[in-house]
Structures are given as C-alpha cells and as structure tokens.
Amino acid sequence: MSEPIYKNIKSTFTEASKAQKEGDYLFYTFNQNNSGGSFHDSENFGQYVIVAARSAKEANRLAEDLGLYFDGVDGGSDCDCCGDRWYRVNEGDGTETPEAYGKDPEALLAEGGFFRDKVVVHYPDGSKRVIERTDRKRRGV
C-alpha cells in the first residue's frame, strides 16, 4: 500500500520552511505553457526553468531577469484561450534539489513525452546547467 500523498506534501513543505529559515537556497521550477501553440527558447530557458532562490518572491524576480514574464494574457503577449506562458511560483513550491514534477530534470527528459525537451537550472553562484534531449528536434523553438 502506498503512503498518503498528504504526508509527502507536508514533509516537503516542512523541509522547505526549515531551509528558508537557515538562509539556504531552494529550487523553484517554472513550467512553460505553449501559449499560442509554440514555446519560447533561449540560452536561459526552455520548457522548464529551475531557479535557486531564498524565497518565491526572489525566484520570481530572478526569473524575470532571465527573460520570463508573467500575466502575458493581460499584457497582450499571450493567447487568451491558451493562457499565460509563465506563472509565478509560491512559497512552499521550493525544493532542496532541482526537480520538475518531483523528478530529477535528467530523469524527466529521459521519460520522453511531448513538451519535455529542455530544462535550464540556474544556481546561486550564477552558473547554469542546460539539459536537453538529443534524440529529436525540439518542437516550437
């Protein structure tokens, strides 16, 4: 029998809160919506962007510095039927290691699937790690 999902959520949240109090960095994941039927791509982001920050507020600011934007439908840059391309992260979204959907970025991309071609992880020291699928041409870039 599997463990209840709420136990895992509580455990993750508790660990994240402790790390924030100690001043450690957490990793916040931004998932790109293919608003208008395509993805935007740059050296700083792909379908997923993971940013190390001390808080969700800081992660959102850093993401904007990297070229992400929020409220694109209201601003007229994103399709109103598809929704905003990027959404802000919230406190409690941070994880101790880089991950997307609870998985290491390399494992996520190795699974394959539509819209899983590139992850860029940005570290506190300014370095970044670009993880890309090499077995097919990326879509919408």
Number of helices: 4
Biggest beta-sheet profile: 4 strands, mixed
C-alpha-based Rg, rounded: 15 Å
pLDDT averaged residue by residue = 77
Helix and strand string, N-terminal first? Answer: HEEHHHEE
* Structural class by sheet pairing and helices: alpha+beta
Query: What is the topology, as strand order, of the major beta sheet?
Result: 1-2-3-4
Q: Give the amount of beta strand, in percent.
A: 15-25%
The stretches of 5 or more residues where confidence is low (pLDDT under 50) are 1-16
CA distance, first residue to last residue: 42 Å
- The best one-word shape is globular
Number of domains: 1
Compute the number of strand runs: 4
Fraction of helical residues: 25-40%
Defining key terms:
alpha+beta; single chain; 4 strands; 4-stranded mixed sheet
What does this entry look like structurally?
The structure is a single chain. With 141 residues, the protein is α+β, with helices and mostly antiparallel strands. The chain has one domain. It contains 4 helices and 4 strands; from the N terminus they run αββαααββ. The chain has a 4-stranded mixed sheet with strand order 1-2-3-4, with helices on both faces. The radius of gyration is 15 Å and the shape is globular.
